[in-house]
Each structure stands twice: as structure tokens, then as C-alpha cells.
Amino acid sequence: MAEAVSSTNADSLDKLVEQQILEHAQKNFSMLADEIAVSEIKLDDLPSETRQFYVEKKNTSGNIRYNYLYRNSNLYCSGISEDFGRFLRDYNFLSEKNLDASKFMTLLRKLTNLRDMTTIGEEQIKNPTDKLKPYLSQIAAPQLSFTQDNGAKMVFFTKTLTTTPVFKFDVTVSPNYQVTFNKALVKLN
Q1: Does residue 18 contact residue 37 with C-beta atoms inside 8 Å?
Q2: Among 27, 70, 92, 161, whose Cα sits 20 to 30 Å from the Cα of 82?
Q3: Half-sphere exposure (Cβ direction) of 120: Cα atoms closer than 13 Å
């Protein structure tokens, strides 16, 4: 009998979360309820008790889409620029230093609009493609560090899925959770 109760509670929670997402998308992105498709995506590289949902406007071939994260009854959305910093604040990231570079990157990719880019990681650096080889002396795997002013900094490199240019990103989280992005094209020497 207890399983049925927890299953019912899970079903109720799923419906509640989906309803919150629908209302958020309608309010913030001017979508109608019947235009929205919501699906949950299971991802292992998120902080515990964090769920990911994917929202797409129907009949747009995925061109109008948003990621939502749900944690502790709070919604965070890739379409709201402050939500990455808000998630980090609510997660006590700066005081607890509770994310590694991999989880930080996952959150960043889910709550910002870094579309159609591949993060260059250790594996790509160890086994580079011919197009990546000329950049090896100038790139590194993602690095997360904490600053002396009690903020954080993430440096990583990306490439697009279809072209060669490599970009360097510096993401800074201030002590009050303001997030800034600096993107620069990596030039070949």
C-alpha cells in the first residue's frame, strides 16, 4: 500500500511541476498551453534532487525551446537570464563550494543559451581531431576556481558543431551571484 501512496504522490508532483512549467512558459514566452510540449529528461550530472524538463513550442522544429530545472519547489529556466545565478544562490554554491566543474558546466548549459556548441573536454584534448590540433597549445579542459573575493570563475573552450572556430568563455560569479560571460574567439598563432 505504501508504494501506491508514493506513486500517487509522485504523479501529483509531476502534474504540479508540469502545470507550473506551462504557466511559466505562457506568462514569460507568450505561448498558449496547447502549443507547448513538456518532457522530463533524466540526467545524472545534475545536483541531487534536481529534475530537468524540456519545453518546446510545437511545430517550430525545436527552434523555440527552453530547459527548465526544478529543485526544492523552485523552477529555473534557460529563457530567464538571471536564473543561472538564482539557482547557484539557492544551492549555496559559493559558500558550500558544492559543485565540481562538470556539474557547473551542466547547469550552465541547461540554464543559458549555449546552443549548438560542444565544450572541449579532456578527452577531446587527449585525442584531438585534425581541426582541433592547431589550437591545442591555447586551450584546456574546463576549469572552475574560487576567487579571493568569495566569487567563482569558470573558464572553458567550445567549438560549434559544424565549423572550426574555437571560443574561450570566462564565466564569473560575483559574491552576490551576478553572472557575467565573456566570449572570445581563439586565434591561431
Answers
A1: no
A2: 161
A3: 28
